[in-house]
Design brief:
alpha+beta, four-stranded antiparallel beta sheet, three-stranded antiparallel beta sheet, 5 helices, 7 strands
Length: 230
Amino acid sequence: MTDQAAGSTPIVVSVRGEANVEADPELCEFAVTISVRDKDRRTALDQLTKRNKELLDQVKGDYGDALERVETGRFAVYPEWRNKRSDKVGPYQGSVRVRIVVKDFTVLGEMVTRLADAVGRAIDGPFWSLRRDSEVYRTARTEAVGEAVRRAREYADALGSQLTALLELADTGLSTGGAPAPQGRAMYAMAAAAPGMADEGAPALDLEPTRQNVYAAVEARFSATQPAKL
């Protein structure tokens, strides 16, 4: 501080701070696809409407308190063409995809098994995540800034300098690790087999949440006094 006050030009210390924070997921998402097939278009549409209502009533009625949100995604009703060279139309197919996000994991295994135990349903998931406003992101950013300050001080101490001011702080990255793909495939296979298990009393599926890894990085520039050890 004395050298700088006497007219010495301050130096600039540039560092990068990084942090990895692991945390339990806060949400679990999966999708239920309902499918129908009938030779009559109107019948296929009526069946799809009925099955869609049955699913929504079941989800909201039995597990309403455990839900974060329920959203309807892709909807389609289309004919099967008997031959590409012919105008003849075969049976009609219909499908609707419902996205379900769960916040209470204590009912998740039972919910998945029961939702899969119905004709024409397939389940894709699970996909674990944190909420957008999760405190985990703040923790990661704070730790990254702290790491940048520590590194800058270590460089300054090694030179016999002292940090005097923060010149710049830039957020260079924040990312979250998601659930591995094999879990999604496992749940889909279970969903396809569930109707056959209904009479035997299908047990709740044991789902182990995937830990979320949040990575944060910052770049910082500090001014410091001239080195005393040069």
